[in-house]
Amino acid sequence: MRFLIVGILCLAPGLALAQAQPPPLTVEDAVAVAVKNNPRLSAAVREVGAAHSGLRSARAPANPSFIFAPSVPNREGAGEAILFTQPLELNGTRSARTGVAGAQLRATQALAVVDMRGLVFDVKSAYYELVRARELLSLSQDLLKTAEEFDRITRRHVELGRRPGIDLAQTGIEVTRAQSGKVPDDYRRR
């Protein structure tokens, strides 16, 4: 009795791990993982942020400048000059600069959306191709089991003399075809 309890306690963690398998990956999960881990999208997000910053700086007026310059000595002694200059933007320079920065932001956002949609399309296509390949594999395995069962039954009928030997050759061909993994075209169309 003690041996049985010890054995159950030793097997319990393994059983718990076997039951705690993660659920299968869905197409939404695959897209989320791809979007999260794609460096191209990460770069696109940073480019959009840089374009936002470029638009903010384009809207700001030009910075004034202060210049401290020593001057030529005169009768009163050495003099210094502090100069303050503020550039004036005439003829709509700032609005043109803002328009260009806004267009660059919209173009960067559009490229980011194109990258995102392309990635989602590629991931979904790959996911559904994987599902299709798994289904074809399952179908091939089922066809092989069925062909082997027919071959076994036919072999028994030939041994008993109920079927001609040519039927055994036919079922052997079907088993060989099923072992090669080729799914007949009429199964693919369904």
Task: List its salient traits.
single chain, 190 residues, mainly alpha, two-stranded antiparallel sheet, 6 helices, 6% strand, disordered N terminus
Radius of gyration: 38 Å
**Intertermini distance:** 56 Å
Strand neighbour order, sheet with most strands: 1-2
Order of helices and strands: HHHEEHHH
Number of strands: 2
SS field, number of helical segments:
6
Determine the strand fraction and express it as a percent band.
5-15%
Shape: rod-shaped
Q: Can you tell me the residue ranges where pLDDT is under 50 for at least 5 consecutive residues? A: 1-12
Average pLDDT, all residues: 81
Structural class, by secondary structure, is mainly alpha
Helix content: over 70%
Largest beta-sheet characterization? 2 strands, antiparallel
Descriptive notes:
This protein is mostly helical and 190 residues long. It is 72% helix and 6% strand. The chain contains six helices and two strands. The protein has helices at 2-19, 27-37, 39-59, 93-160, 165-179, 185-188, and strands at residues 65-70, 80-85. Strands 1-2 form a two-stranded antiparallel ribbon. It starts with a helix and ends with a helix.
Short description:
The chain has 190 residues and is mainly α.
Topology:
Blueprint: H1 2-19, H2 27-37, H3 39-59, E1 65-70, E2 80-85, H4 93-160, H5 165-179, H6 185-188
Antiparallel strand pairs: 1-2
Helix pairs in contact: 2-4, 3-4, 4-5
